[in-house]
Amino acid sequence: MTTVITAVVGNINFCPENQVEEIRQNIATILSTPKYSVPMYRDFGLEGGIVDKPTVIAKSKLISEIISAIRQYEPRVEVESVSFTATTDGVLKPTVKVIINET
């Protein structure tokens, strides 16, 4: 099964209805959490130092960070692709397409 996830967490559901909802929520959390911001879990999330890089460099570094973080913290999926939407103020919003491993 393939699903697309953006970096918008919204309300956290502590009792997801199914595995797909749980995985989507986990990946959205990974995408929206800056590394070093979670006490006792400092490696969780994405590197924040990429913010000041030129867009082309930021995209390539973010793709690498996103794939590594998802592999580490959500092993039930394989990343198929990572794309970005850029806002007018230069903010890159990642969208990740993943394949959920059937278990």
Overall shape: globular
SSE string, helices as H and strands as E: EHHEE
Q: Would you give the CATH topology?
A: Nuclear Transport Factor 2, Chain: A
Count, helices = 2
Percent range for β-strand residues: 15-25%
Ranges where pLDDT stays below 50 over 5 or more residues in a row are none
User: How many strand segments?
Assistant: 3
Structural class: alpha+beta
CATH architecture: Roll
User: What characterizes the major β-sheet?
Assistant: 3 strands, antiparallel
Distance from first to last alpha carbon:
11 Å
Give the C-alpha Rg.
Answer: 14 Å
Number of domains: 1
Strand order of the largest sheet: 1-3-2
Rounded mean pLDDT score? 90
The percentage helix is 25-40%
CATH class: Alpha Beta
